[in-house]
Design a protein that fits this description.
It is built from 13 helices and 13 strands. With 343 residues, it is of the alpha/beta class. The two termini are 26 Å apart. Monomer.
Length: 343
């Protein structure tokens, strides 16, 4: 019903406005006493074979929601009822920021993809932490953290440490985002020397805690094999928990959408089906080259049970959806979970 009736109507309107409309509608619906139970019955599938132990955490199933959908941790209870095994909030920055000018989120329907240049729009780490303290569900939460746009790269560590401190007591794991293409200069932090320093400093603070939290690094799909080799070395030396592969791509290769339409949309990170094969290649390279030395969470172009299995077969321990969730609707989570049990 979603693909036949609902999405054709929603896709007539601006993508970001639709996102806020759907979130508001879910908030209203969940205030009706019986609705959360019905939604959970429709979209949640539980089975012992789906439970995963990764980085010391127990995930009820391996299908998570990627960062970017619930930037401010305002939808955790509603999203939990849609069957996800874990939810990643953010990207969160120390101070609130409006993000880039609108419009900044675009559907590339012929390619089943999205282009965004949101620019880390969020209400700040303190607001996200407060929201998480008031949530009712116990689903595992990842905190995706970044720097403010006006923070120089030389001072970026301070921003990441602020987010780390604000969120430490309310998230189950952290994700260091240095791979978004929508904050000027951010991807420069993926270079070996600054990345090593950033992760080492965060891990040092982490290990001072009574119970440290797993820290993952989210990387771009546009890295070369040499840069991926550096990532493997950095993970090994800093002893962070693992890698999330991958973020959005700046590539526009092999799209079916007319070049004129792509040019009209302009800059931004591309996600969804166009990213599928490259993301799988990166996962396979990291897992094979490192001899599975650390867990990889696979994300990029997952919109079906087959897509999910391809990522898992490439070596990822968990997977995350975003664009596939938008184009396929909430039932995709349950379909993937059922297929993993049958297989």
């Amino acid at each position: 019903m979603y693909k036949l009736l609902i999405s054709p109507i929603l896709f007539l309107f601006d993508a970001e406005r639709v996102h806020h409309f759907v979130c508001d509608a879910l908030h209203v619906a969940f205030k009706i006493p019986f609705v959360p139970r019905i939604i959970r019955k429709l979209y949640t599938y539980e089975h012992p074979d789906l439970v995963q132990e990764v980085a010391g955490l127990t995930f009820r199933n391996p299908v998570g929601l990627a960062a970017g959908f619930d930037k401010n941790a305002e939808m955790v209870d509603q999203l939990e009822a849609l069957g996800f095994g874990f939810i990643e909030i953010g990207t969160v920055t120390p101070r609130p920021q409006p993000g880039n000018d609108k419009p900044r989120l675009f559907r590339v329907k012929q390619d089943q993809g999205l282009i965004n240049r949101m620019g880390f729009n969020n209400k700040g780490a303190a607001v996200a932490a407060a929201k998480l303290r008031s949530r009712k569900s116990k689903i595992l939460i990842g905190g995706n953290i970044g720097k403010n746009k006006d923070t120089l790269n030389e001072e970026a560590l301070s921003d990441y440490l602020i987010c780390f401190r604000e969120l430490f007591d309310v998230v189950d794991y952290f994700v260091v985002n240095v791979s978004s293409p929508n904050t000027p200069g951010l991807r420069e932090l993926q270079e070996k020397e600054p990345l090593m320093a950033l992760l080492q400093a965060l891990q040092t603070k982490n290990l001072e805690k009574m119970t440290p939290k797993p820290i993952f690094l989210k990387i771009a799909p546009d890295l070369t094999d040499s840069q991926l080799d550096d990532i493997i070395e950095i993970v090994g030396q800093t002893k962070i928990a693992g890698v999330i592969a991958t973020n959005t791509t700046i590539s526009r290769d092999n799209l079916r959408t007319a070049p004129s339409e792509i040019e009209r949309i302009g800059a931004g990170g591309l996600s969804g089906q166009p990213l599928k094969h490259r993301a799988t290649e990166v996962i396979r390279y990291l897992c094979s080259k490192s001899n599975h030395a650390f867990p990889v969470i696979g994300v990029g172009g997952i919109a079906s049970p087959k897509d999910a299995k391809d990522k898992l077969n490439a070596g990822s321990k968990l997977i995350q959806l975003y664009s596939g969730f938008i184009f396929e609707g909430p039932s995709v989570v349950k379909r993937i979970c059922k297929s993993l049990v049958r297989s």
